[in-house]
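Lab intake sheet, docking and co-folding queue.

SAMPLE TYPE: protein with bound small molecule
LIGAND NAME: S-adenosylmethionine
LIGAND FORMAT: SMILES
REQUESTED OUTPUT: full 3D complex as structure tokens
PRIORITY: normal
SUBMITTED BY: R.K., bench team

The fields below were copied directly from the construct record.
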Amino acid sequence: MTEERVRDYWNDNAPAWTQLARSGYDLYRDAINTPAFFAILPEVCGLQGIDIGCGEGHNTRLLAARGANMDAIDISPVFIHLAQATEQANGPLIQYQVASATKLPFADDAFDFATSFMCLMDVPDAKAAIKEVFRVIRPGGFFLFSIEHPCFKTRHLAKVKDAHGQIIAYEVGEYFSDAVQVEKWLFKKADQAFPPVSRPFQIPVFHRTLSFWINETIGAGFRLDAINEPHPNAQTLHDYPELAGAGQVAYFLHLLCRK
Ligand SMILES: C[S@@+](CC[C@H](N)C(=O)[O-])C[C@H]1O[C@@H](n2cnc3c(N)ncnc32)[C@H](O)[C@@H]1O
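RESULT FIELD (auto-filled):
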């Protein structure tokens, strides 16, 4: 699948995604993934950063709130427009532009750090994207990114439930398949949103193995500093019992790398 086709899918998803995420429906992001990401994020205050695949800009704004001078790119013009509209309301802190992760419109060594939240598994040529990130970070700079966990988000995936309907395990398979899959889903409880969202997101996902991510990161020249597999703690599970599945296996993988 081409990047242009991926962009078209995300342009279609962007309005409803933004509406739902800004209304609190992206629970995995807000309760598990983003807090874990920021827990291992090195100090960014006063640094030049680039956020890759920024979507509507939620996480980029959190980075800017920590004092980072942020650029942000996304392949979807609709997402960039929605991000910019929020930015204009709050002051010109973040420079957004439409671009692909595989062709970053920046000079070599331009940034102190790069982030990418849940984007790289959606890029057809993730190897090229990782090389591009390496190029635009200065020596000594870091790259922190999150993706769906390749070992537990496989092409074949089924929930195993007990007699009470509780998820007790996952059945995974086709781990080595790299065929693209267009997933159809909405955030949990999004059917209760008002205004209602009439159709699910359609998201092209490119499955890769754990060794792909580690080898391509090291192969680009990065040193791997930390790996994290965020999952809900007892308080989160108490507050959001609907996230219980994410306590059985790791839904997300975070890699902290250094140039
Ligand atoms: C799951 S969303 C995550 C958005 C945002 N980072 C967040 O955490 O809410 C994936 C994002 O990756 C973007 N994307 C997909 N392919 C891309 C590419 N080649 N270059 C840049 N962005 C891309 C999509 O447009 C979408 O905004």
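REVIEWER NOTE: Residues 182 and 204 are 4 Å apart (CA to CA).
SIGN-OFF: pending second check by T.M.
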